[in-house]
Write the structure tokens for this entry.
Amino acid sequence: MHVITDTLDKFCNLSGQLVSIEKTSVLFSKNVPQSIKNQLLRQSGFKEAVSLGKYLGIPLLGKAPRRGDFAHLVDSVKAKLTRWKATNLSFAGRVTLAK
């Protein structure tokens, strides 16, 4: 853990930026024992992340995505299309909305 904190300190010194400990989280491999996780979190002051979050509305999973991982995105697009169909727009108007 000292290597990571030293690297972050060097980054802060060279860049003039600061790392916010309150906003920083760590994502552990499933192979890391809970005792090691607890020790590293205690030493660093970081929080444990349960996922990598989303990028452009798509979840970052750390594994190959499956069809179900995109279900929310498909549902969102379907809902938008349904709303657009409900409005009395010409075909050109719908194309413009889709852009």
In short: The longest strand covers residues 25-26. The chain has two domains: 1-50, 54-99.
